Amino acid sequence: MSIAVPAPSTPAAAGVAPVRPPGGVPVPAAGRAGAAPAPRTTVAAAIRGAVRRPVAMALLAAALAGAPGAVAAADTGPAAPRTPEGASAVLDGLKTYGQAVLRGPDGTVRRIPAGLYEMRVDGGGMLQTYGVGVAGDAQPQARFTEIGWNGTPLAGNGEAGRIRWVLEHSYPQLNDLAGLAKAAGTTVLTAESAAAGTQVAIWRLAEGVSVEAVDPQAEKLADYLQRAARRLPEPPASLAVDPGEVSGPLGTRIGPVTVRTGAQSVSVTPDPAAVAMGVRVVDAQGLPVTSAVNGGKLYFEVPEGTPDGSAEVTLRGSTRVPVGRVFTSGVPAQVQIVAGSSQSATVATVAATWAQLPAPQSADDAASGGAMTALGALSASAPAPEPDTSGVRLAASGSSAATPVIASLAVGLVVLGGVVVLLLRKRPLEDGPGPERATDPE
Fold this sequence. Notes:
Layout: H1 43-51, H2 54-65, E1 88-103, E2 109-121, E3 126-131, E4 143-147, H3 160-168, H4 177-184, H5 191-207, E5 210-213, H6 216-228, E6 239-242, E7 245-249, E8 254-261, E9 266-270, H7 272-277, E10 280-282, E11 291-292, E12 297-301, E13 309-320, E14 326-328, E15 336-341, E16 343-355, H8 363-380, H9 403-424
Parallel strand pairs: 7-16
Antiparallel strand pairs: 1-2, 1-4, 1-5, 2-3, 3-15, 4-14, 6-8, 8-12, 9-11, 9-13, 10-12, 13-16, 14-15
Helix pairs in contact: 1-2, 2-8, 3-5, 4-6, 5-6
């Protein structure tokens, strides 16, 4: 089937990559500069040197802040779902098919249609597909989007690669029906019986169901395809970007993003907001980019002084969607797999986010800020009291629901008092008894 080259389709939004929290800071032991080695090592001696140095104090504060329960856990919620990449299409319906008999594990027997569907690609193009699920009954006019095997019923299915082999070695990829019939050891195949036999073989591999083609010639084709199938790798996307989101500080070249496509080239267009902010898409040498080829790398350049924000770039092209590529409507039972494609419109998006570089801090600012952060975290670590639902007080011990809170506050005050003493004490702590004081001669 030959179809005219399509017009471009509309872009879709992309998510923003989450920001990862920084790790903790270790606390080095520090001694008094120039002092003789102490006869024994104590906790007080280790802390004494840290108190005398602002930077070391900042490290100590960071360590205190990292104590269990001192800092709330970082947000580990799921990232925003990725925008589908490649082609989007609307299902026209089942076009070329025969009949099959499905036998259920409970002994039921059901006659079902088996064959090729057709899809109209957004922006231009046509696809021919088979159903992956035997009970799919895909509905005409449903909207489908291209997706990888992961996240579909083919994920983790050891027979997925064999399904791709079936698609590559049967109808409609092989239009020589006489040659296909000869390979299958049958007499005559029509388009309908070839489509039915191919669909039956796919169902058997995808779901392991007991299903047979009603037409004897179609059944022989299904047996041949299932027996001869070899494992092939998952096909690439018609158009994709890797990764789909990038981020970096303002004043740096953000990227790279690698383009993956079967098209000869794709257009690269920043969204209006990116253009208004002066964001440029460039190559590794910093030259502006308006189109890209397979394997090409894209970078983002954001002008100095731009407020923290994000921008999106859309890539559009025209290519044949690879055989074995999957389309989903969001219903697992209705997943379709590509058996043939005309030149079809494809689209992908990539998002970039940026932020101002943090202002440099002096050692004293870092020390005081770190200490205040640590003390604030310690005070914030006390758990909120839970409501007393028992209605019974502990009369024998005098305890109540507030006891854990009081204990937590006491621990916090002890640590706070220790730090204040170390900060304000003018004389260094000594590990042993001090030297005898000199006396005036008589």
